[in-house]
Amino acid sequence: MMLVSPRPAPLLRSLDNPLSPPLVSPSVKIHCREQSPPSSPIQDDEEAEDEYLPQASGSGPRSRSTSAPACRTERKFKCRHEGCDKAYFKPSRLAEHELTHTGERPHKCPECGQSYLRASHLTAHMRTHLSADAKPFKCERDRCGKAFWTATHLKRHEDTHDKAEVYPCHECDQTFAKAHLLREHHALVHMPEGTKLFQCPHEGCDKSFNMKAHLRAHEKTHDANRYTCSHPSHGTDFPSFPVWSALQTHIQQAHPPICPHAECNGRAFKNAQRLKDHLKVHDQQAADKAALALAHPEGELPLLLLEGISRSKRRRISQVEKPEDGGASPKLRRVKSGESGKDWWCDEEGCEKRFKTKFALESHRKAIHLSLRPHICPIEGCGKSFPHKSNLTRHVASHSRPTTPIDRDADNSNGLVGKVKEVRRFGCPAHAFQKFIQAPPDVLAPTPTSETPLENEDSDRCLKRFWRVYDIRRHLVAEHNIEIEDMECRRLLIFDRQG
């Protein structure tokens, strides 16, 4: 009986001499079951194994080849779609791949309509429509009772039963096969309620976390030398801190950024950005002083103008004094023009006030029309109340303002005795406004003459006095209907010879 084998058959040699040349062609397999001598099961297994081992070519001794057949090394079936270089060993795999180009998914679930490229994928999906009791592979080890869909998953589960329990609990006599089971047991049984799985091992720390990465990040805070301050003022003894926030607090308190300008007297700032913004004010002040020096080259600038330039957040003169059609931004024009932008009108009868914000309108209505004065002076015996907190703050400061005694021997003594409050710095300059606007722009103060002194030109001039230029501006608007900006108000005071 002679059959053609689909695989390369082993070379048959003489029974007397195993090293003799082969008796038949390697492509022919001879079955002589009736004449073959009885063999042991081990010999049968060895012969069956040798039957499927590819043999090396030649007439020498038999040897195993390490090369795989051509059908397992060459991808003959290539995709013909343009731009796709995929290739496969089997035509069935190529057919499945071509479905990705056409978008066809032939295997559909009869329950939910979900479709798949492969039948095996559909088979795995169909299990989701079955109950857990339908799992055919059940574990029978130690009354486990767990069931699985495939034999591979069951075998993987049974391996866990064969492994020794290597994670013992140090609090009790229980052991566990996995580390996460031990963590869950320790947190649930031996720790207070609410303790999470990953607990900090440092003594005295009771913090716990749900993730190991969070625990590792927390453990770094127990390193006291994690962050070090390298400021040169420490010399060789650099202090260290466990957390970044502690280092930043130390830097803010011990090494705050300081303004280098002498007029600031070592003013400290919260961080470097605040100092950077502050230094821009100095740069603007220097530019404003240079602009004023060019306008008045004859001498030193008046102190009152320098104070106006030195105020923080003051707009540059070159920007504020631009003409309306000179390209200034709308925001600058709104600041310069007091009427533009006042879109909130007071709806009380007889009141024609209008404001630029709703907050200003509400403050006006509460203070003027409702007469609400919720801010009361806390000084004992005073009892005064004010509509705005800023008014109260200014009033409280007046209680501690130094006083100046009256010089009884002076010729201009008015007969008062005791101590009186210090005379406020500025008087109302409304009487000089008309001459101020007619004077040339480069004139700061008129030349005094005996014929027309400004002090005696009006007998009914306003006698109110103020501490600040801001208060003068508010007074001029409210009482004299004169609205000017800060620097112009200062020039008006100098023109009135009050600067």
TrEMBL record:
One of its GO terms (molecular function) is zinc ion binding. This is C2H2-type domain-containing protein. It is found in: Nucleus. Residues 1-69, 316-336 are annotated as: Disordered. GO terms for cellular component: nucleus. Coiled coil: none annotated. It comes from Kwoniella dejecticola CBS 10117. SUPFAM superfamilies: beta-beta-alpha zinc fingers (SSF57667).
